[in-house]
TrEMBL record:
InterPro entries: Aminotransferase_I/II_large (IPR004839), PyrdxlP-dep_Trfase (IPR015424), PyrdxlP-dep_Trfase_major (IPR015421), PyrdxlP-dep_Trfase_small (IPR015422)
Alphabetically ordered keywords of this record: Aminotransferase, Pyridoxal phosphate, Transferase
Molecular function, one GO term: transaminase activity
Pfam hit, one: Aminotran_1_2
Ranges where the Aminotransferase class I/classII large domain occurs: 43-329
Organism domain of life: Bacteria
Cofactor: pyridoxal 5'-phosphate
Protein name (record): Aminotransferase class I/II
Species: Malaciobacter halophilus
């Protein structure tokens, strides 16, 4: 696998097995399979004027219970990460790993020295002073949720700048670190709107921090960086008041079913307890690549996790999807294990 490769490349997958895109069952991508109801007619979208973002800022601020001046918007979560690394201009980064691979990529691009903490082995280890701490919560690819107050207290003593990536927190009822932004002046929270709102093609990411930090970030941002389509789509998604409750309930139900499928398969050695919309599993005899090849016969994609730090070639991540997709996955595993 390529060093920074991600899941969800259904175009190449479909091409490799000579099938149509709509035939692929994509269990590699962690985008919500439940979609909000969008009532807006985009055929009537006004695109001759420059976009304005006041309403979008207001809706996102209300959604995350912060003030509008405590957030800044970006062209997706990855853009937010790269912008923050560039803006902070620090020398060192500490990544609690395994983690979203764009963080290592950002370290390489912006010449940060970095070290990785294997949180699956031990999470309470010393860090350097003045480092940039990156912590994904719930984590990827295992979906573990961590209570962070004691970590924040320690990071503050080490004068660390802290980025908490909460891209998958919307799938849970767990507490956000947003409540600490006034207590800890060097704290930034990343919210990737596209995961929960099932809109990877709509590029909107959010950084939340105190007003001083956000004002500094805004100084270097262009006037227009989101399309009017991005803005309107996400506003309409946030207008679906029932979506959060419905999507969370369905994902929890289907995750329980997915966990049972994996636990009952003799191909799987163990699974991780996940708070997110995916499950990390370690295979018994097959490698991830071998199982991927077997699943091609059934037009099913899963995520090979061998390019995550501290994971080997036997780890796979399977996303929570529809009942029908998971039924197909179960049948495929049963057939392969015979």
């Amino acid at each position: 696998m390529k060093t920074f490769e991600h899941g969800g490349d259904i175009q190449n997958f479909a091409k490799s097995i000579n099938c149509k895109l709509e035939e692929v069952i994509d269990l590699s991508s962690n985008i919500n399979f439940v979609k909000p109801e969008i009532e807006y007619d985009f055929n009537n979208l006004e695109i001759s004027s420059y976009p304005k973002y006041e309403k979008l800022y207001s809706k996102i601020a209300k959604n995350y219970k912060v003030k509008e001046f405590e957030l800044e918007l970006y062209n997706g979560g990855s853009s937010a990460i790269f912008t923050l690394f560039r803006h902070l201009d620090l020398n060192h980064c500490t990544i609690y790993s395994p983690a979203y691979l764009e963080y290592k990529k950002a370290c390489h691009i912006y010449k940060y020295d970095y070290n990785l903490i294997n949180r699956l082995e031990r999470v309470d280890v010393p860090i350097e002073k003045n480092t940039l701490v990156v912590f994904v919560n719930p984590s990827t690819p295992d979906g573990t949720y961590y209570e962070l107050e004691k970590f924040l207290n320690y990071w503050q003593k080490q004068n660390a700048t802290v980025l908490i990536d909460e891209s998958f927190l919307d799938f849970t009822d767990n507490n956000s670190a947003v409540k600490y932004i006034h207590r800890y002046e060097k704290l930034y929270i990343l919210k990737s709107m596209t995961k929960f709102y099932s809109s990877a093609g709509v590029r909107v990411g959010t950084i939340i921090s105190n007003k001083l930090n956000i004002d500094e970030l805004k100084k270097f941002e262009p006037m227009w960086k989101l399309s009017v389509f991005d803005s309107i789509y996400l506003q309409e998604a946030l207008n679906d008041k029932k979506f959060r409750k419905v999507a969370t309930a369905i994902n929890v139900k289907n995750k329980i079913y997915l966990e049972k499928i994996l636990q009952n398969s003799n191909l799987v050695e163990f699974i991780f307890n996940s708070s997110a919309n995916f499950v990390l599993a370690r295979l018994k005899s097959y490698t991830a690549k071998q199982l991927q090849e077997k699943l091609k016969e059934y037009k099913i994609m899963i995520r090979d996790c061998s390019n995550f730090d501290f994971l080997d070639e036997k780890f796979v991540r399977v996303a929570v999807k529809s009942q029908n997709d998971l039924d197909a996955f179960k049948k495929a595993l049963d057939a392969i294990s015979k």
